[in-house]
C-alpha cells in the first residue's frame, strides 16, 4: 500500500499497491487495490462515524492470492485518552454496517491505562483533568476488547502501571503494551515503537524515577531516553509499521505544511526553525526506514511522504529491499516537478519534499532543519547493510473527540498464516534485549553507551541462537495469554473520589516470566544493584562479549563518534487544546530533579553524580 502523490491514472496503473490520502470534506479517503478506506471520528456519535465510511468495501473477505498473502484490516488511532468504549463502539459499528472485520487496533499514545484512583495520582496532568475514563472496565474483566489492541505510551499515562510492563506485556486481556521500546509481529507484520516524548534535559539520563513520584519525576518518567533509542537502532531487519507519540523532527516539511499551519498556526516558528518534533525519532526514521510511521501528540491529522536516498550498496546493485512483511513489494518512487498549488491536498505536498539521507540528515539540504534528526548516532552507522524501504508513509491523527479525525482504517498485505493472525514475539528484538540487558541504567546519571549510542551492531550472534532455540523449545513464538491482575480495579459503586500515590513498584509476573524465558535477571527494581551496574560491564551470563568492547575491537580501531542529539525547543502553548500541564520548564525541572535525586541517594551505598554527563 502506498500513499500516492499523483493523480495520473496511467501512473496509478503501474503501481501495484497504493493508498491515495486525500483531504475530502474533512476525511482521508484511500484506495487500496480497489478497496476504499476512510478516516472518521465522531466520538460522540458512532453511527455518524460509521456513515463516514460508507464507501468501505472489500475488507470482509481475506483474499489469499497466488503469492500466499492475505489482507489484514488495521485501525490506527491517535491519542486515546482512555476513551476505549467510544473507540471500540465506532469500530464495531463499522464492522456491522460494512461487514468489515477489524483485525488489529493500534493506538499511538496517551492511552491512559488507569486501573484505579491510585494510578490516577501518577498521571502527569492537573488534578482537575484527571478522570478514570473506561480502561478499568477492560482491566477488571467487566468488558473485553473486541479485537487485539497494541499501544505505546505518550505523555499522559499511568506511569506506575506501564513501568511494570517496561519490556511490553498485556495491560488488559487482548490489550498489549509495546513497552518503553519494543517490537512484535502480528500476522507476519513487524510492528515496532517508542513510548513517551522527547525532552533534551532528560534524554541522556537513566530511568531514575521511582515511587512515590514527585511533580517532576511524574513528568520525566515519560521522557524518552537514549537507551531505548539505542536498542531500537540495533534492529537490522525491515520494519513494516513504526509508532511514536510525538512526531519525528522535520516531518512537517514532507507534507502540506501550509494546510497544517492553517489548523495549528502556533507551530509556525518551530516548523520554520526545524525544531518541531523529536530528533531521536527522526534519527530512527532515517536509520530504520519503516514502510509506515504513525504518530499522535499534536492533536491534528497530518500526512507526509519521506523518500529515502538508497544506501550505497543498493545504489550499486540497483535493487530495493524485500522481505516477507506487508510492504515487501517495491515502491514506485516517482517525484514530479513543481510546487503544489494552494488547493492541493496534504499528500500532493510531498512532491516537493527533500530526500532523507542515510546519515540522519537530509541529503539535499545539508542543514537538515531537523528533518533527519541530526541525532546522536545518526552518523555513517553502516545503514547500507541494513534493511529498509525506499519511502516511509507518515500519518499523524487527532485525539478522540466529536468531529475530530482520530481513526484511520487501512488494509495491508501480510504473509499467509494458518488460522487467525496472532501476536508473536519478534526474535531479533528478544535477542537485542539479551545483548543490551547489562546496559540498563536506573541511575540519574548517564551511563555511556557503545559508540556513543550510535553503534548499529545488532544483537550478539549467541543471543540470536539462544532466542531461536528457546522459541523452538516452546514450539511457538506466540505471545502467551498470561495477563495477571496486579492492582485492585476501580469500583465506582464504592463512591471513592481520590486515590493515594503508590509507594513502590510492583513486579508484574509477565515481566518476570519474560526475563526467565530469556535467561536474564529482573532489573527494574531501583533498589537492586543489577539495574545500576557500571556501564560496559559484562552481563551475568557466560559467553556474551559487552557491546562496548566489541565496538573497540572491530577492525582494530574505535568506531566513529556521531554527533549528539540537537536540542528541541519546548512546544509553545496550543490555544486550541486544554493545557494538561505537560509543558516543562526545562531548566527549573532539571535543577529540581538534581536536588531531589541527591537527597534520595545520600542515604544509599554511593552518591550518584548529578552533572548529567
TrEMBL record:
Its main location: nucleus. Its cofactor is Fe(2+); Mn(2+); Zn(2+). The keyword RNA-binding does not apply. SMART domains: DBR1. The keyword Metal-binding applies. Residues 380-524 form the Lariat debranching enzyme C-terminal domain. It is found in: Nucleus. It holds the Pfam family Metallophos. Coiled coil: none annotated. Residues 576-591 have a biased composition (Acidic residues). InterPro entries: Calcineurin-like_PHP (IPR004843), DBR1_C (IPR007708), Dbr1_N (IPR041816), Metallo-depent_PP-like (IPR029052). Keywords: Hydrolase, Iron, Manganese, Metal-binding, mRNA processing, Nucleus, Zinc. Residues 550-571 have a biased composition (Low complexity). Belongs to the lariat debranching enzyme family. PANTHER family: LARIAT DEBRANCHING ENZYME, RNA LARIAT DEBRANCHING ENZYME. This is Lariat debranching enzyme C-terminal domain-containing protein.
